[in-house]
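Blackboard transcription, Thursday session:
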Amino acid sequence: MIRGYEISHLLAGVMLVTSFALLYQERIAAVLKTFAAQSVALALAVAWAAYTQDRSELFITALIALCLKGIVIPVALYRMVVRLGIHREVEKVVGVGIALMVGLALTGLAQALLLKVVQGTAGHAREDLALALAIVLLGFLMMILRRNAVTQVVGFMSMENGLILAATGARGMPLVVEVSVAFSVLIALFVFAVFVFRIRERFDTIDIEALDRMRGDAR
Amino acid sequence: MSTSPAMQFLAQGAQMFLVLLIAPLTVGVVRRVKARLMRRQGTPLLQGYRDLAKLLRKESVVAENASWLFRAAPSLIFALTWVAAALVPSFASGLMFNWAADVVALVALLGAARMLLALAGMDVGTGFGGIGSSREMMIATLAEPAMMLIVLTLAIAAGTTRLSGVADFFIAEPLAVRVSLALSLVALVIVALAENARIPVDNPVTHLELTMVHEAMILEYSGRHLALVEAASYLKLVLYLSLLICLFAPFGMAPAAAGIGGWIVGLLAWTAKLLAGAALLGVWEVSIAKMRVFRLPDFLGIAFIFGFLAILMAFLTRGAVQ
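(Written on the board underneath:)
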């Protein structure tokens, strides 16, 4: 008999693996596809939590995750990338090996931290929290390591995926907060988009190293 | 029905010859599936046996400057691989020598065989042998850490590194989806592909100088020497398929004291799973292209990452259960 929490762990595990895939991936179109896959896994995880915990409002969260992050945002980003003419570009990611090692260390850190902090609470929620924290940290790492503005946006969005996963595991976040977070993320996407185009207009590239040069601390 | 020591001994012996007998057939199935998917006629299923028989009859040509190592290596490689393959539980767990069938011992036996093969590849001093040995060692240094991580994950889950013990544990355990085991399954499949010189890592059917790894090392061998090396590589394929079956799909395997009836059921299940695994390998091989040698560290790095994540997950689950 397969128990309920095993499915939710499996889905959270799939999300963690896609986070690593995001760190590893060099092609921008593939990064967007991987992000979409992560969001679909998130939607499934949230829907499963809604089903097992009898919390029907979570189905709305799952639907929002599926529509916004699984479809709308990746498609919008892909269109943007096509308009910028960089959809075939291979972003040179520096030190994939080191990035993955740091990612592993962060995953370990998240687990060590969670095992210490929430001692005594229900075991399965704790595991989901540890996985969610790892996904958040990996999103951070991606934002730090990438030099392309679009992939940085993807890092931000995947971090937000981790946050939603944490919120569903913790039986906390009310629906109002959930909806407002979803919309603020959407607005963040628009802001990012405007910025990316502005950066491109000004510097003819969206490699954010150009900003360093403008600020005067070029290497 | 319990079994006497004599029966146990016979069963262990039967397993030993069973793996040797079925190995060429397994390779035959892989080749046949590949050929059929490419719409070729393909070789007969029993071609492996014929190849070995032919090679054993042929004269063995040895280079002038070959040392004793070159002559001794094939027998030693074959012996080490055969022992390793005979130790992996196939139709029944808890056979006579099951205490020796430890995953760490298995890795050590295969490591010794690999070292001999690499030395033999360099012995005659041809360029190809050297290239093959150096690449084989690169693959080994990347695959073995991943393998050890998988072993540790299983040890955490089952509480032992003995293969029989692990198989017993998973047979007794109710069916469960565990993230750590799913991750280590992926990692073990990647390691198995690398160790058996299978397609994304090495192509077993070409002798193209830029890409070959395993074939480059054994290029100088002929006759019965080549037969032994080839048989060892067939055995290694059976070993890894058997290992995957034993660890991740042990259903139908007979417990230690099942007696002949249980053993026969176990045997049928194991043979079916082994041949199905071989067919899957054939499908995999036609559906993917070989990688450049310089991309191999990335591919095997995935196995390492998955193995490491599996260990982290295993610790996490254990922490939660306590």
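Lecturer's comment: Residues 4-215 of chain A form one domain.
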